[in-house]
Amino acid sequence: MMTFDSNRLLLAEAKDLRRSLTKRTAKDIISDKIAALIASGVLNIDDELPSERELATALDVSRETVRGAIQILAARGVIEVSQGARTRIISTDLSGFHVGVARHAVINSYDLETVHATRMLIERQVVSDAAEYITDEALERLRNSLAAQANCADDPVQFLICDREFHVTIYRACGNPLLADLVTDLYTYMMDYRRRVMARSGAIKKSYQEHVAIVEALERHDRAATLAAFGLHLDRIYTTTRSILSTSANASRKPARGAGGGDDA
Questions:
Q1: pTM for this structure?
Q2: Residues contacting residue 111 through CB under 8 Å, at least 6 positions apart
Q3: Residues 23-99, CATH architecture
Q4: Can you give the residue ranges of every domain in the chain?
Q5: Which DSSP letter does residue 102 get?
Q6: φ and ψ at residue 12, rounded to 5 degrees
Q7: In the chain, helix, strand, coil percent, each to 5?
Q8: Confidence grade of residue 174 (pLDDT, cut at 50, 70, 90)
Q9: Distances (CA, A) of 201 to 10, 54, 159
Q10: Among 56, 98, 109, 231, which is disulfide-ready with 63 (CB 3.0 to 4.6 Å)?
């Protein structure tokens, strides 16, 4: 005999199945992508959302699609749209949005060495397969992403929005959606610290140059060159993330200065 809890579970599963069978529109997909940016820490509470034009360029969709996605997020209380002011993030309650296989707090609970080793193991296979299977359409999206990245050299948040779309496009090209989702979750590791890294002088330029090398290798469908270019990129992400984590740890261990002692720059 089925219990009340069993019935509730079945109803929940039926609801999820019905949702999965419903045709999702472009604005639904983009609202999920913006929600994922919030969940991962690219966008935080009280951050202003980039303009419709900037988001449309970064996500390679129309402004109308972005506008529809923003309306979905606003209707669910995630963002606030005010007349005459920039749209801003007001909530991180993202229930109902698809933001990844694993919760980002779970990913962030692992140490950097573990996550880097896992990325090197899984992501190398994913990008190697992407080099073989990537389509002309996906390559065009990557070229468009590079053009968008070139126009946000002084905006770390805008660059990271482009960066996520760039990486996910490559992951999806591997042909294995589960692996792509897993690697996307790993990509979000310590994203709040990545924001600080990208604010450093020259960081965006260096990342952009590495992206160019990756696209050039993918265009040739060259597995070895793609692995080499992506390996350099992952190693730099690891090194810079370790640096910022170390800096933050050292700062937190410093004793508070006495009155009149001033603050470190």
A1: 0.81
A2: none
A3: Orthogonal Bundle (1.10)
A4: 23-99, 104-247
A5: S
A6: -65, -40
A7: 70, 0, 30
A8: very high
A9: 53, 22, 14
A10: 56
